[in-house]
Amino acid sequence: MKNLFTIGYAAWTAPKRMTRMSSALADARVTMLVDVRHSPCPSDPTGSTSYGPKPWTLQRDGGLIQELKKIGIAYTWLPELGNPQKNDRQMAIFRWHLAERERNWPVHRGLSLLGELVSDQHACCLLCACEKYDQCHRRLIVEAFCNQRPDLRIRVIDLTARGPKIMSEGSLE
Asked: Do residues 14 and 146 lie in contact, with contact meaning Cβ atoms separated by under 8 Å?
């Protein structure tokens, strides 16, 4: 059985966020962090507002990639797996894209790319901001991925502030 990890960085308070998240990833032996945020970059690249660069944002210098390098974890951003309407709690557009039979939406390319990463023997972890797996689009990604890849037996483990939590094992159907 292959482990597929997920993590929501809002599980930790901002002052301890990167340290605790890094520890959780290292303890789980994650080798590839797969960023599934629609926009992981700071809104204010100057840093003059509270929306400026943070250790968990994608930046040209420093930030998330630099922090992960320190602990030997590779990083990739799959914008195709980002929720296109992050303020929609029902994730209606994202669900519609996933369900579309023609599979023309970016999310389907993202699922294929995720399949390559998982098949390349990486211990992958999906990253989003959302603290709760059950309320995050990470869950929808995992369900769609597992349904597309019935050949893989997947154990889904959410890395939480309270420790790893097994969300599902084997088939999700």
From this structure: no
